[in-house]
């Protein structure tokens, strides 16, 4: 089977998002031939971060921010843009689909919106369908929103080689490539979702409102056109159904890890230590964990906290460091660089904590469970369905409850071992890479057979 695997700013050029998931999937589906389509936000294509397996026939990188190719049929493109904008701003799905399909047809040979007065079109559509509670849109706002939408629609110009199936690994921009292929050549697509795709856009209230409606309309259209939708959790499945997905075409396929890479950790360090692993960004809510650890330190005088991972938001990390100083936890809370494997980080702790406010598929928890480490987590998103009864759950944003759960486990070695063993058994049963590969082998057959 020939499959076009479509990603955005991840595989094979960047080690983030669904990149590791893509790499693991490809290595297990060697009966299929893959054509990789990588949408890149950078102006130039970076050096690959992965060596692709032998079942990948071609890798095509498309810098979305590169200079677009002007299309000669500007009147038709302008008319399609009017239908598109009026469709998503008024939440008329059929109108939005009509406009997008016209633009997909016009994108053959060049990007259809380059040279189109999209800001004027957008401003007219906003004023025509403006609700009493909607923010006002200035000319400057219209230009900002138009530029973002113009960039977002550039993947419509991507042309695929003959394939049997498209597999976008996220909604949004990868979805546009799959939709265009379906409309042009009838190629079905399977949509994987590792998270809910609604971008956080900076700008005025009207710019944010425009982009929110655009991506919401695109996501709903993708759900309607997909042969199958495969979210990584029941939490995401509820999102899909809430936005119009057919329940019969939604199949939950949780993410998985390779058990051989995460064998059981037999020993614990001498100093009581809590470990957190992840990207240091606001939604991971390190402030709550740091405040909780002030209470942990008071109850367990020699305890330490290690925060391990990339510092992707320097401003946020700086605020965390200031909080550490204010709570007099200098030297107690460590900010460690990323390690080659999260198992190295887990080995330095007695338990693993997760303090997030949003989780679609908490891979660090799955990896900790596979290593046999006990976990304490905030009960958000898919955390409870992943952990089950093998870890402690506390309300999000509650440092008192988080501290209490950590202290209880630090004080009870037998309970830590019992929970860790149960967590590994659960991970081996539900969250392995082989399980993911078997599921997608079946889904590929189901889509192409239909």
What's this entry about, in short?
This is Lipopolysaccharide glycosyltransferase, putative. Helix content is 45%, strand content 14%. With 450 residues, the protein is an alpha/beta fold.
What does this structure look like?
The chain has 450 residues and is an alpha/beta fold. It folds into two domains: 275 residues, 3-Layer(aba) Sandwich (Rossmann fold); 173 residues, 3-Layer(aba) Sandwich (Rossmann fold), CATH 3.40.50.2000. Helices cover 45% and strands 14% of the residues. The protein contains 16 helices and twelve strands. Strands 9-8-7-10-11-12 form a six-stranded parallel sheet, with helices on both faces. A four-stranded parallel sheet has the order 3-2-1-4, sandwiched between helices. Strand 5, helix 7 and strand 6 form a beta-alpha-beta unit. The two termini are 14 Å apart. The mean pLDDT is 93.
Computed CA radius of gyration, to the nearest angstrom = 24 Å
CATH level-4 homologous superfamily of the largest domain? Glycogen Phosphorylase B
Secondary structure: number of strands:
12
Annotated CATH topology of the largest domain? Rossmann fold
Structural class: alpha/beta
SSE topology string: EHEEHHHHEHEHEHEHEHEHEHEHEHHH
Key attributes of the depicted protein:
450 residues, Rossmann fold, six-stranded parallel beta sheet, four-stranded parallel beta sheet, globular
